[in-house]
Every structure is written in structure tokens, then in C-alpha cells.
Amino acid sequence: xxxxxxxxxxxxxxxxxxxxxxxxxxxxxxxxxxxxxxxxxxxxxxxxxxxxxxxxxxxxxxxxxxxxxxxxxxxxxxxxxxxxxxxxxxxxxxxxxxxxxxxxxxxxxxxxxxxxxxxxxxxxxxxxxxxxxxxxxxxxxxxxxxxxxxxxxxxxxxxxxxxxxxxxxxxxxxxxxxxxxxxxxxxxxxxxxxxxxxxxxxxxxxxxxxxxxxxxxxxxxxxxxxxxxxxxxxxxxxxxxxxxxxxxxxxxxxxxxxxxxxxxxxxxxxxxxxxxxxxxxxxxxxxxxxxxxxxxxxxxxxxxxxxxxxxxxxxxxx
Length: 318
Hints:
Blueprint: E1 6-12, H1 19-27, E2 34-41, H2 47-52, E3 59-64, H3 69-79, E4 84-87, E5 93-94, H4 98-107, E6 114-122, E7 128-133, E8 138-139, H5 142-147, E9 157-159, H6 160-166, H7 177-186, E10 193-204, H8 214-231, H9 233-257, H10 261-274, H11 276-280, H12 283-297, H13 300-316
Parallel strand pairs: 1-2, 1-4, 2-3, 6-10
Antiparallel strand pairs: 4-9, 5-10, 6-7, 6-9, 8-10
């Protein structure tokens, strides 16, 4: 086959119930000039069989011993033939027209190395949770990115040449290797990251996901910031307390969602103590604080009912 314009890299690990939907959402895109590179990172369930049942000449399956998502993405990059690179996750779903719009977005911005969009969160059964995250419009600066990772990997489309200049994903990071990659890519040149507020992807929240393991996230963030102190010391020094506070708030949210309320309380207090004025301007701070306070003060059953009512109200919003 001739080289496709877009290579989609899909690492998978024990996602048998979801991987067909993920692959189908890529292969059914209106943009058809693509290859789908699936890297099975040592799955022990039926993930590989589900992929092998897909009949499409654009899909390529490669299997490796379990090495983590960074290693799987690097394996996909080594096999990619396209001028443009996209990333997907094995339990998520692209919406129709996603790739067509991404290609048009990147083609319209010769100064951009990467474009990204927003995600809508669904539960393990695919039901809408009412939460849209990672919304951004226009240029995402290095300063913005140092404060908060606004780039969801499963929405990214980037130029191959930028990938080659950035290098590989850091396989020593147990979490947040994508965040580390976007930061290194942002250092290639000002104004090279562009976001669109449109929702392009359904992001499935499942028990046990890496994003919920806040201790690993904390360790990874500290290592990434140590790298950035060497690569862009002046930029980081100007906003590091905001970055620290914002990340501690995110960790508090992860701890709360995993049921570790004492850790959520401690992390939330740390965040507010570092940059209260910055955090209190953000509605997410008030929502998380209310949830944590409710978990501390209300009986468990009543708190869960209140939490469920909030989720239902969110999902019913247009």
C-alpha cells in the first residue's frame, strides 16, 4: 500500500470489551487515507482476538511484552509511515468527522506542529456523564501548558517532523508521559500548539485507570518539573507555584474519585495553601471542595445519593 497521510497509533492493554468500538471509530472516519497501528502491550484477556476479527487492510497489529503506554506509543511511532500522527486509546471512541476536521485544522495553520480538541467523559458503559474537559481555543503557550495539561492524547494530530524533533516518549515515567512529551514539543517554537473547543472524542472512565492512581501521577509530575527546570528555568520559575497548586488540586480530585477522602482533604488543603487566590477564581475548586466537604460531613449513603444526583444533572445538560 502507498504511504497514508495519517498514522493512528493505538496502544491497547486488556481492553477486550471496548477495543472493537475504538478501532471502528477510527476506521469509519470520513478521512480514509490512514493506517491504524495497534500495539498490543502484552494483553492477557481477549484483546488480541477482538482486533484480529477486524477485516480492514488499513489496520496493523503488533504485539509486545507488557512495557507500558510510553513504550507502546514509541513502538507505534517507529512503525508509522504517515506525514501526520494521531493517538488513540483502546477504550475511547472518536466522534464522526473528527479526523477530517483535525487535518483541515492543521493544514490551515502552517506554524502549528500539533492540534488538539476537547473530550466528553462517559462511564464504563458508555453513558454520558455530563462532563466536557480539556477545552481550549487557539494557541496554547508553554506557560499555559506548564500550569495545566490541556491536551488529551486521544485528540491529538501532529506533524511527523515535529515528532522526529521531539524524540521518544519517556519510558521511565510511570504516568504522564504524554504531558512530558507535549512540554518538550512546545519547546520547539512559540505558538506551535493549537486547540479547538469542539468535542471530538468520548473518554471512558473506568475503575483502576492510571489517571486514578494519584501517587504515580505525583511522582511523574515531580520528575517532569525537574526536567523543565533545566530546559526552561525562567518560564517555570514565574509560574511554578500556580502549577504546583493546580496539580495538587488535580491529585485531590483523583484521590476523591478513588474513595481516598483523607488524602483528598490533605491534597486540597496543600493546593489552597500554595496559591489560594489563583485557585479560588476557578469554579472547579469550589465544586471539588464542596464534594470533599460533603464526603467528610454527610453519612456515606446520603453523600452517594447527592453525588449521583449531581452526575444526573450534569448528564442532562445540553
